[in-house]
Amino acid sequence: MKQANWLNSISFSNYRLKYFNKTEPDTGTASMFTENNAISDLNFISNYKFRIDSDKSWNFGYQLDKKSVNFILENLDPSSVLEKDNRTIYSNALFTAFHYKNFYNWDIYAGLRVNYYLPFKIFKLEPRLIINKKLNKYLKFQFTGKIKHQVVMQIRVSGSHYLGLIPKIWRLADFDKFPLISGEQLTVGTVYRKQNWLVDLDVYHKQTDGITTLSLGYINPFDNRLYTGKRKAFGVDVFIRKKISSSYKIWMSYSFIDVRERYDGLNNGNSFPGQTGIGHLFSLSMAFYHKNLELAASWKIHTGKPFTEFETEDGYDRMPMSDFEPLNSERLPVYHRLDISAMYKYKVSKSLISNLGLSIKNVYNRKNLIGVEYLMNNQSGEQSWIRKYYGIGIIPNFVLRISW
Fold this sequence. Notes:
The protein is mainly β. It has no helices and 24 strands. It is globular, with a radius of gyration of 26 Å.
């Protein structure tokens, strides 16, 4: 049965940020800078959907997008403008997609998007293909391949980035020094379902070109330049769930994540481990339900995040800035933590329901090192200090929720 649907939408968003950072070790000012960032986005989409029959559908449409970004990053000691930009980009896009779904055999989605960027007069194609094939009653094959582009880029700031203490800086591509961000992704996987078992396996490869980082002098006291590079990621995700009974279930997950980044002018032009490449991550969770009582526990462990270490004979104290090891060549200690919770639900009256709960995070009070920050004395440019950040210790939480 043929059906058609035409949908139009318009949206607007506005984001503004003013940020001031001042770090003062006992020996003097390490860093002091300000960040101002403003982003506005006006978006219009017109989408026409047409159902050909019960198995096939087709849609096409048009999108107009106006993005404006203004930012300035200033170093206050000594006073200097590290980077600034004020830019607006219009993008026009035509898109189409075909969807074929047969419950017993195939589920295929194939799409194409054509972007045109003003004022640069540049076309970019974005194909996408998603295939799901049911191999038998219990096993399904999955494939995803896509290319995407992004005109708004995120500048990662070296230094306090371990904890996200410095807000992310956003700017627009200029198709010259800061090219359009382009990403390619391929994912292959399987899903197995039988009785009370679920096993999900995915293997993926991602490549992103046009990423940007700003050192703020942490790698070299006289270097506050922006660097543009690329990132490659390879990963494996495994998820297993087992429903043992109507009141008890258990699930586990494992991920392997290898991320490599390379920037011209950093690390002698050689690639190095990316900050998000934590290596191995394993988690085990379980839940038990009995009448109005719910008990849960979760334990996770992963290899430490990559970080850059100093070569020094005096340990982690003062050290010359020139004695950096290769970027992210070391890893923090292994991170692990156990959390437990209990929730009891009962009726106070016909219309009043109460939920009383207790949870404990980091039950065995593990002292996890989660970040290392190097602080430079901007006045001398010769000495630096190290600051270590640790995760939360044991934390109990109580909750009382009443609904009616």
